[in-house]
């Protein structure tokens, strides 16, 4: 039986020596992202707003980390990556169920006071 889809965080560090390639690869990268839009929960970049990205982070729904790795390596931007890291991701914020964090905190405080 197939595993149910899970969330994975894909964090790709851009090699500073290869950042100049990003502009040339951008159209092909965006095509890749659009082709995987159904699996992407959200994404973004880190780095100065007026400069090239240092890290590209995307949360993806997939059946395995291997699936996410294959998607990352098929991205035209992959030739600029110094490192690709994939880990399971569990959303905490914004809360899926309003008040959930306060309930957990209150239970922990109550336990500590017993």
Describe the model:
With 114 residues, the chain is an alpha+beta fold. It has one domain (6-113): Alpha-Beta Plaits (2-Layer Sandwich). The chain contains three helices and four strands. The protein starts with 5 loop residues before the first strand and ends with a helix. A four-stranded antiparallel β-sheet has the order 2-3-1-4, covered by helices on one side.
Topology diagram in text:
Elements: E1 6-14, H1 22-35, E2 40-46, E3 55-62, H2 65-74, E4 81-88, H3 100-113
Antiparallel strand pairs: 1-3, 1-4, 2-3
Beta-strand residue fraction: 25-35%
Helix and strand pattern: EHEEHEH
* CATH class division: Alpha Beta
The largest beta-sheet arranges its strands as 2-3-1-4
* Overall helicity: 25-40%
Shape: elongated
CATH architecture: 2-Layer Sandwich
Number of domains: 1
Instruction: Quote the CATH topology.
Output: Alpha-Beta Plaits
Overall strand count: 4
Q: What is the average of the pLDDT values?
A: 92
| Separate helix tally | 3
What distance separates the N and C termini?
Answer: 44 Å
Catalogue the unreliable spans. none
Question: Tell me about the biggest sheet?
Answer: 4 strands, antiparallel
Rg, Cα atoms, Å: 18 Å
* CATH homologous superfamily descriptor: Dimeric alpha+beta barrel
Helix-strand makeup class:
alpha+beta
């Amino acid at each position: 039986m197939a595993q149910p889809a899970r969330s994975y965080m894909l964090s790709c560090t851009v090699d500073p020596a290869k950042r100049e390639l990003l502009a040339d690869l951008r159209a092909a990268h965006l095509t890749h992202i659009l082709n995987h839009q159904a699996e992407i929960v959200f994404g973004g970049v880190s780095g100065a707003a007026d400069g090239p990205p240092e890290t590209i982070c995307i949360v993806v729904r997939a059946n395995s980390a291997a699936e996410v790795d294959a998607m990352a390596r098929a991205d035209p931007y992959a030739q600029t990556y110094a490192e690709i890291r994939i880990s399971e991701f569990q959303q905490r914020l914004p809360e899926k169920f309003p008040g959930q964090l306060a309930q957990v905190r209150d239970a922990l405080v109550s336990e500590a006071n017993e």
